[in-house]
Design a protein that fits this description.
Layout: E1 2-12, H1 17-27, E2 32-39, E3 43-50, H2 53-63, E4 68-79, H3 84-94, E5 101-106, E6 112-118, H4 122-128
Antiparallel strand pairs: 1-3, 1-4, 2-3, 4-6, 5-6
Length: 137
């Protein structure tokens, strides 16, 4: 488990906007590790973890000026099997740690899942999960 920077980008809900964002990052040789897109009628919010957050923000400023924000989140490696996320959620609930959002991505070969957890107190969440935080490298 490690602390990671999540980049949240506000996009107009129209064809091509997500493609433009992803192309911008790809052109900067930035890999998207996990992504979630939530939409409303007019706007969408893209939450993502990338391998080079500082470079990603620079690319967003240069090639596709968009409104964005950075947030500290937990990036948790879980086995990709039934009940793994339930166990994680049970541990957080037992310590009364609130979860604002969760999204995930299966890792290479499907043996691991990468779960992003947004919580008001990531240090308390890490303690509830029985680990100490390290920064994502």
């Amino acid at each position: 488990m490690r602390k990671a920077k999540q980049i949240s980008v506000s996009l107009e809900n129209r064809p091509g906007r997500l493609a433009h964002l992803c192309r911008c990052l790809a052109d900067g040789n930035i890999n998207i590790i996990a992504i979630s897109v939530a939409e409303t009628t007019e706007q969408g919010v893209v939450r993502m973890i990338v391998d080079k957050p500082a470079s990603a923000l620079k690319m967003l400023d240069e090639c596709c000026p968009m409104t964005y924000a950075e947030t500290d989140v937990l990036l948790v490696d879980l086995p990709n099997r039934v009940g793994a996320l339930a166990k994680l959620a049970d541990k957080l609930a037992a310590k009364r740690v609130n979860v604002n959002f969760v999204y995930g991505s299966a890792g290479p070969g499907g043996k691991k899942s990468y779960i992003v957890v947004g919580t008001p107190n990531i240090e308390a969440a890490a303690r509830a999960l029985g680990t100490t935080l390290r920064s994502r490298k």
